[in-house]
């Protein structure tokens, strides 16, 4: 089976938003083992939408549309597709009741326009929408499947996950289980080399790598009859990946590096503080973006100026003068003094040159030192990073967190 | 004239990346006054690429492809399109020399594969690539234009801006000037209402709104014979927008809120510090992401725990007990004490409940107070924000910066 993703919306053709829905759906279809050969985007124009639909049905088994299910007169996806398929639109009472209840909960009057959202092609299967007023639908006709979902990702994604994904599991007679293995501290080509035979030999489960901003994710996906069978197939492959990549695997359940570090600290009832120069609050910010971080994260310092490093952390003027603000000695002293002053169990420090200015031949842009102090022991790393300011800062944060993770786990 | 954007790359169909190139190009074509009616994506598959190209040439005047110009055997865009157009590929000596120099500068040997990157369809106009080895090209045939650009945005965007955009300016006989007006503190519908007649009446320049994460951008675009004429057309429209939206316009040259605030402080030689609770370093991080921030930004505190607010900033235990950590009183005291302790000219403080947990009926998720202290005077704002943790934190940062901006400019 193969699928085509057809997005409808002039805002996409005007460049006001990126087609992230197509990316999400493509990933999920890959997990289902359904090939996606085409993405298409058309505007809110019935003629071009109809042409695109006919073309898509000629070349694909499944056509999934996003967008154009709103209440306005520009929203014509359902009307256009129903006409192209020769199906009348009929009211779906449950959806109409839901839309009415949706507005009364918000204490807002329902517009007459919203009634049209409850009309669906006759014989279609409804895809409920918990987060908005536009239901989606699934139409089967002549061996083809047409699925219509709304455009806003916050509505579309849960609708796909809760109704459309299980629909295809039911259709294909198998369910899909998957786990996301997260890797840091090893380059893309090294990961590929170490896993190449696994990736090539494995057909169930499959292993698909995604290269992120400084880290790599490996999606392990199994097709099975039930969840237990999926887990039984996936677990040994995850084990093999762990054997090949060692301590560079920081999660086998899709957690972010921040989540992993916060969890390790939380399990021991330990606290964390941060002292940042070039990352300038990004490290603290990433930690605090995890709900519940307050149990572990105590406080952070953005000591951008040398004076701040001395006054807030207690780094000695001597160290700064002898080695400079960007040095292993300063990084280690930042982490050590930080923990002393805040009486936290763990402290992380980052100092470096994120560019684009400020580099010298001895200390070029991308030179960053990270240090971690854990219960009295301090370790540090020297990094030479590539990329722009944003990338250097992001990857520095990951290295600092990873250093602490390794210390917490007793990994060299 | 109308254009179609045809992206080539299996990584797009696998959902490994989003098609941000299509968004960028669509925006730029809108500025050129060229309509984009279709986006398409196909994989690294010559048959489907050829079909998509033929289809695109039937329905569009301009076809611009991204991707598939790399050195590997999967990269087949040029070969496939040249064949479809009946054009031989011929070596472009200047590009070959450039590729050779590119590798010798990196001290890496050039692969034989890279030679094929210097072959272009006969008669095509080369689009030089400053940031990679794959040149692009422009082919004119039978009144149609086919343009091929590489996939990586860091290569594609400068190539489009430096060669393709001026090419269309030359073709259309006019140049395009544009300015980005940035707006904060006014809702999307309010902005639309205030500008509706301008947006509808204006045909040159045009006004196109883009809704961001908490702020709104208005692109004012003029078609003219030269830059001076463009500026003469744009300036009065920007003036009208300023009249309608008042102090909510924080930049008329595309600057971010951080840039605007740092510039205002820098002009006076003033310094800035931050004290953050729920934003947790995000405010400092955004400021420090601006190159040159070090001239203004002195230091920041992430005082997530109450103890940290007392110990690091000197907020009184009494205030915390009487009003709670999330209160106007605590926010103002954070900002005032911060400036006293750091001896900076300006201080920004944020405290609030970013969720998803921690809300109560009296202090729900999304309740945030921001305060700014400027040379001894402290002002604050109470916010009730919607959205998830990330959005609440982001919008809080913008409000804090905007409060300081207004104080710096003496705007009520």
TrEMBL record, chains A, B:
This is Putative competence-damage inducible protein. Belongs to the CinA family. HAMAP family: CinA_B (MF_00226_B). InterPro entries: CinA, CinA-like_C, CinA_C, CinA_KH, Competence-induced_CinA, MoaB/Mog-like_dom_sf, MoaB/Mog_dom. It comes from the Bacteria. The gene is cinA. SUPFAM superfamilies: CinA-like (SSF142433), Molybdenum cofactor biosynthesis proteins (SSF53218). It comes from Thermoclostridium caenicola. Residues 4-171 form the MoaB/Mog domain.
